[in-house]
């Protein structure tokens, strides 16, 4: 989720298990902004994890296995390690013959131990319970370059060569440990091992995985090189408690397979895996879904054997949908509308209750929501970005298990009451609502959005949804969350990958504990089979569901190489072979650089500065923070360019007049760079009057503002599902006494900056209708009540009670007087005007290709900013875009109608006039769409040719055009 790059102060709580029988502990961020998810622990407690989604900052990482505090320091003078040391995994088996370990220099002998039954035990001075003991030889040359390139965080480790190898493949199925002995022959240090390096070295695999259907049979394939036994338990139906048969799989080089009859299609199965698990130090029997599952039972506990290529699962015309896709000539033609599936129709009473809040609601052509999307599409909107719709935890797929609040009672409560949030929170983990950033299985549509979660319904209905979007002119982007998983360990019901190959899929720290910087259970795309699973999953959604794009959650936690491979794989899809035009699939994500991956700590990651040059988009938080003010992690009253900084102060102390004026001029530079697609080499005149590149303009913490190489790499936005809605932010940051009419104008002004910038504009659903969440800063689990979208435009959902206290209580003193003040609530007329203004902005953007330039050179040649330098008028941005014309023969003509466009953003509370002498005698007129607007204020904008002077009303963005031939 979009956020700022400033350092965050996050509080963490560590809860240690009190005994070895409590096999997990968690280190919990308490103070982060962003999504939360719940994880079930083996100690029978539910703990809540929040995610620092909008931040991009360093976070302490926690463990998910029991790790005693006293064993933390490997340099301790303690001679005899305790049994607890084996809960750590401080050594890395990195290739078939090399182990990396920070052993002490004073130790003389080193050994590798293996126990097939998991019986390793540390006594006073030795290791017992092993089946195999192999001496290790310290290598003086250190770790090979290929190892340190893949695992840069162990660059300083010593390398140990395994002297006499038995079958390594067999050893990897055992409990493993290394131990060091001093000159007296006593064990001084012992630890378990992390295995991803050697598993990649010996077992990287590119063959079939999951269920493979042929004319006469169904074959199952599971990559599980550390498993000792794998069986497939087959169930005739999803409700059966006992399998109809249990069939053993055979292993070849780490891949377990079985060929079954075609009659298995339509049945269900789980894998029974016997495998050593590092978190319990035991051989565990795990029942687990197939990581490559494409369908699930209603309760999500069994994998549905389904062939996605079956004609029975295809809506009419499905195979020819590629021919019906809306046109897309360039990625810079994209505009994105971010939408949560349930939000869209949960309150739309035109939609049948059986499909309300789900996939099929988008097929209801007569609904108010679909009509609204049609109108946005007609105005130019190209893509809908759907929040996670894969199988996630936090919402029961069976609707009959849901609880609900009494909406009729809640609506009668005061707007500043704390009773609404209390009622919502009381059932928030048992209702039908969650944003969905709690991944369980990446490749299966979420069952709660289907009319029936069992069998093939979720597959067919998801496809019908995509088809319905495409047929009203909108392409579909899927929000994918490959950076973490909801469950881990052998006992968590939401754990899948960590049951199949324990310790492989999840990224671990130097102690062997799971990294939790993304919230919980960070995945490791630097591992071969993790990356492969991500690439296979993307292909499944692109080919099997004809998804048109992907938005990567916390993309910075994924390796850059993985993202490049993903783009290459998707763009290679061909219409005549795959029935998909892969060249039209757009990918983008959150390039925040924090946690264990920061500064390339685990390899070159897909952060903002690393991803540039790949044509992969990333969110530009610089323009967001400059427009709004502060950051999502600063004081909520901190003002920015559009919310009154230096122009109409609120109650917050921003500093002296000189400081505030300087701050406003800095933010204006950030916005101008952002409006030029945040290109790092874009040259303009800065606030100091100097010609500078975008990358030479710095944030307050010294980072370059600009980083993009091409315009399609920049996602321009000011709001998203994270943090407060745009209208709510305006209500917080603007002066308390400001009228609701002026707040609505500011909301529109902010949206106009996004809509008229170069790059790819991104809008949060509802911002165009003044959407409110009653000032909730993190509504991931705040239910339908606080997340309501009203496409009848009767209400914007302002003043529906205090937002949930967990993330908002610290600001209740600011929230209460605002919610209680009836003047803050917009009327229907305000909402209708905002919707119309938004559609006008889309029409203006798509009225000229000059707003959607495809190349960095074109932006540099055509885009200019005026009103710059030390004498510029504060709070006013003047941008011109020039097309080729008779007096400028060296510039190609792109627009047949307009040869010049001038955009003036006046954030000041009063009318402003600005003169550009070089525009004298030119024939600028207000854009025809604004001339026909219902906004009387913008229609009063003027250009005086004799002086080259533009006049724009307060809090207004005016677009002037020079028609070709005039």
Automatic annotation (TrEMBL):
NCBIfam families: pullul_strch. It comes from the Eukaryota. The lineage of its organism: Eukaryota, Viridiplantae, Streptophyta, Embryophyta, Tracheophyta. Residues 89-201 form the Pullulanase N2 domain. GO terms for molecular function: pullulanase activity. Residues 794-962 form the Alpha-1,6-glucosidases pullulanase-type C-terminal domain. Belongs to the glycosyl hydrolase 13 family. Signal peptide: none annotated. Pfam families: CBM_48, Pullul_strch_C, Pullulanase_N2. Residues 208-293 form the Glycoside hydrolase family 13 N-terminal domain. Coiled coil: none annotated. This is Pullulanase 1, chloroplastic. GO terms for biological process: carbohydrate metabolic process.
